[in-house]
Amino acid sequence: MKSIKDKLSIATCTLLTGGAHQAQAIDNAWDLDTSYLYYGEADDRVTVNKAIANLSGDITDNDRVTINLVLDTMSGATPTGAVESETSSVTFSSASGAGGSTATGGAPDIADFSDTRLGFSLSWEQTISRLRKLTYGGNLSVEKDYHSYGANATLNQDTEDRGTTYTAGLAVTYDEIFTKTGGTPDPLGRVEDGVTFGDGERYTYNAIVGVSKVLNKKTVAQLNYNITYSDGYHTDPYKVISEVRLVGDSETNAFAFAETDRYYESRPGSRLRHALFTSMAHQYGEKGEVVHLSYRYYFDDWDISAHTIDLTHRTPLGLGRYIEPHFRFHMQSSAEFFMHSILDDGSPLPEFASADYRLDQSTGYTIGAEYGQPWKGGNLRIRLEQMEQNFEDAEYDENSALIFQVSYQKLF
Amino acid sequence: MPQTSDLITRDDYFIGRFTAMACPCEILISTNDKKTAIHALEIAQAEATRIEQKFSRYRKDNIIFKINNSNGTTIEVDEETAGMLDFANQCYELSDKKFDITSGVLREIWKFDGSNNIPSKQQVMDILPRIGWNKITWENPFITLQRGMEIDLGGIGKEYAVDQTTQIIHKTITDSVLVNFGGDIATLSPRKNNTPWLIGVDDPENTGRNALGQIPLLRGGLATSGDARRYLLKDGIRYSHILDPTTGWPVPDAPRSVTVVANTCLEAGMLSTFAMLEGNKAKEFLQAQDVQFWCA
Is B71 left (phi over 0), alpha (psi -120 to 50) or beta? Predict the structure, then answer.
């Protein structure tokens, strides 16, 4: 007959020593978090289906590893930056320029595309001493027209009372950018000429310093400053900009843009970005409601500045269930070289120009909610959100998207 | 109801007595200091009473009642109860599904009063669907019982109380203390001069009058399963009160009594219970566990 005494001894010891042992068991557990995300823009624009898997666990008492895998499939149509096609007098060959490997059916001002992205990252957190942790990481992301490789290191230092944590980190990223047909187009070269250069390269250096502080038993606050310098190819090889003439009737005051030519966009060869991020989480009430408020201020040397406010409020519903409404507001100014189109008035072309709506002045908000509950020994979360964006000058001045995410996390 | 207790003075130790968990409880304190003895007795009585109130299936104000009357809804339990349920789950697996805290409903048809009142096969068949730990959803800290099912931590509670009480007393009192709740015993240290506590093992054929032997216990736990006074007798067949939850019938050829010595009272209690559930293989089972035991 088999002996069960050892297993029984362990089980008995666990019960008799109570919570301390159980808590340790959870600390050492492997944590698997998987999720599926759908992002769908209105009017059949961009659709993203994303699968995410995150696995973390302790490999020794002092080392914890985290592996993250992301698989995105993106498809749909996206504005190229050109003015709407009915006003155009330019013949535009979508196959040579816009987005997709072979764009079919997309109007020239909007280009069909589809791509798949595989992202992988690995991080290793090392506990140096009771109060100090060092995290190293590497990441890699591959698309048909984009490769990205990165490495990072972060130091976390707690104060003796563990009430405050200081963070300092450095990261380096190397990106390769090219079109699916190879190379990158001539910046501000005529689309019709189709002059192509070699692949784009970009190096990005990022530094972060931060502090997070426990203000009292129920409140935690955080402040971060992030500076990023990038050097190299920043242009989007699929984006174009129209050269236009104003046509119209001065009697009726009805004007329209008539496209006379079309160029590939051109952006500066470097960018310096700053971001200041502050957040606060506070727990209150009998049920343990948690309110989380954050504000981010961003500015860069392309003249973009942005403000983002994010607010969530979690209400526990008992038995581990909760509901968490979410509101986010974002506003930004436009890049100095952003323009709706280039005016065909005989003056020389600018050095940099882009009609990419993402560089335009805009306001946007997201509203939605997340629901969570325990399920099959883990935690299930479901999130549904609606995003609305308005752009000041871009040809397509609105965007709305539906975001749906279902996630499942389990400890082993 | 006021809780009473007695303290008796012996040569070099005190005996404290009270009743809890429906059995006589006793603690032996190896000291000459009466205050220390009273303190130990108070701690023991408080802890035994706490555990009884919390886990007794006879009360209507505790977590067990809440779980057993949940009508199929999910109940969130506290950390200590969760620990007990985790432990019960492990015992279910270690005993090959024979130790099952859902088997208590069998008492509705099996009443061990020394009579010949045996339930019918149909009665047993009818009750089996309400038994089975595997039918319960236990996702710490949430438990969901199917309607009609019940749990009973009685098979763990007394031994758990003995070990808990021993540990709590040990935190405040340096003198050796032996805790004995109805024959389930534990101590964390030997008596003065490093002498062991001596424990008599009851003879089930001659209960209360004859000791099968004496066990010297320096530290550890001791537990006895089986009760000579609880059985049914029909057509010359003696039905033991150890019921097999997988069949709904008493375990055939179970020993009258099994006593085990182990690291803790809880471990000893589980090993003696598992041995009883093995029926005529009880001895073989205990030999494989490499523990000190008495099987009668």
Answer: left
Q: What is the model's pTM?
A: 0.62
Distance from B216 to chain A by nearest Cα, in Å?
A: 21
Determine the distance in angstroms separating the CA of A412 from the nearest CA of chain B, rounded to an integer.
13
Quick one: CA torsion of A365, A274, A335, A332, rounded to 10 degrees? Answer: 20
Domain boundaries, chain A: 34-411
- Partners of residue A393 on adjacent β-strands: none
Give the B-side interface with A, CB within 8 Å.
74, 76, 79-80, 82-84, 86-87, 90-91, 94-95, 139, 142, 160, 163-164, 167, 262-264, 266-267, 270-271, 274, 281, 284-285, 287-291
Question: Cα–Cα distance between B286 and B293 in angstroms, integer?
Answer: 7
End-to-end Cα distance, chain A: 30
CA–CA distance, A13 with A41 (Å, rounded to integer): 56
Residue B200: count of CB within 10 angstroms of its CB: 11
Q: B91-107: per-residue pLDDT in tens?
A: 999 999 999 999 999 98
The answer to whether A306 and A297 have CB atoms below 8 angstroms apart is: yes
For residue A267, CA distances in Å to A186, A190, A235, B32, B83 come to 12, 15, 5, 91, 62
**For each successive 10 residues of chain A (412 residues), what is the average pLDDT?**
87 76 50 95 93 92 92 92 66 40 48 92 92 95 95 94 92 95 92 91 97 89 96 95 84 80 95 97 87 97 97 89 96 96 90 95 97 87 97 92 95 78
Third-level CATH fold of A34-411: Porin (2.40.160)
> Average pLDDT in the B228-249 region?
78
A394/A109 Cα distance (integer angstroms): 12
φ/ψ of B219, rounded to 5, equals: -155, 155
Q: What is the pLDDT of residue A311?
A: 97
Domains of chain B (ranges; CATH) run 1-57+153-189 (3.10.520.10), 63-152 (1.10.3980.10), 196-296 (3.10.520.10)
Distances (CA, A) of A369 to A31, A330, B241, B256: 24, 18, 56, 62
